[in-house]
Design goal:
The protein has 57 residues and is mostly helical. The protein contains 2 helices and no strands.
């Protein structure tokens, strides 16, 4: 997987992890949940790219 394809998923994972951590630190459950969903979205995006690359080869 090239760097260009990996980047959007990784960015979402990092943003989600940061948002989740900030939400936990401040006690804001809504921010925590939003961060968790962003991180999951990034995970799914990366899994999709990996599966797509696997079928190409």
């Amino acid at each position: 997987m090239t760097r260009n394809k990996k980047t959007p998923g990784k960015i979402e994972q990092v943003k989600g992890a940061v948002r989740e951590t900030l939400g936990r630190a401040s006690g804001n459950e809504r921010t925590t949940a939003k961060g968790r969903s962003e991180r999951t979205k990034g995970d799914l995006r990366q899994m999709g790219k990996k599966a797509k690359d696997m079928f190409k080869h």
